[in-house]
Amino acid sequence: MKKLIKKFDFVIILSILFNLCSFVFASEVEKILQIQNKYFQKLYSAEFSSKVAVSNTEEIMKLQKLPINKFESGMNFILKGTKYRSEVPMGDGKGRYVSLYNGEKYQFLEIRNKSILFVSSNNLQSQNPYNGLNPLLVPFMFVFQKGDAINIETLQKPDIWLRLTKEAVTTQNTEKFGHKGINIIFYKKTDFRSGKEENYEVFFAEDLNYFPIYWKGTDHLTMTFTETKVLETKIFEKESGSIVIPIRIEVKAYFENGKLAQTSNVEIDINTLKINQPVRDEVFTIPISQVDRVYDADLDMWFEPNKK
Prior knowledge:
Layout: H1 2-42, E1 45-56, H2 58-64, E2 70-80, E3 83-89, E4 96-101, E5 106-111, E6 115-120, H3 152-155, H4 158-165, E7 168-176, E8 179-188, E9 198-205, E10 211-219, E11 225-238, E12 241-254, E13 260-268, E14 274-275, E15 293-296, E16 301-303
Parallel strand pairs: 6-15
Antiparallel strand pairs: 1-2, 1-13, 1-14, 2-3, 3-4, 4-5, 5-6, 7-8, 8-9, 9-10, 10-11, 11-12, 12-13, 15-16
Helix pairs in contact: 1-4
């Protein structure tokens, strides 16, 4: 009987220790992710120009029948609260797209030989509102799931980070690229790209207020993986606290055998970078008098504002 009691006590002790470890683990992850949420809540305005240079290997070109091995793109971006304006070139370089939200209406402008403006009360580009690779978001792509709008507004929501807390699997205090910090592995059931299972290993640098300077995402099905490294940052000291901005980022995609498929280098032009400075509301709306054709999705109607 005494042996049975001792065995029972041992099981209770193990259970208490397990629950205690689980609590400490969850608290540590939640603390790190709350810092990320506060980071985006402190970022109420931003303005910059950026560029991205993409290099494809011969293997990926053959597999996906890509016509060129290198191409460049860019983005002119302005943010104020939930309002934004994002301008990117068309793929052929002969025109540009402008995506806007002024707090009430979404606008999407195509400029080529003629300018066509789409207007709606609903988001016209549900998953990628900025219509391009935004360097402010690249270090945080591990957060998003399929169906999320990939924008800063999403990352300002506390429940998004609470969801990610529940997806954490392991943590480890370690060093990477000369920084001390914490490595966390997340298991996601519905990744934003494929909608399938994916693991993310993310390193948060302690000296950069736990800013994520590295993540590796591995697809469970294909075992292909992507690595993202933040190579350079700039810290802005504001009344709301320190804000870390990624200036240069390297993204590499690999085949399941570890061979490189594609490299993307993303860089913000630091001379254009403004953080938490005043922004005029006028930049978030394109007057319809300045375009050739307009489609109002709310009214389901086309019209030409300058036609006489």
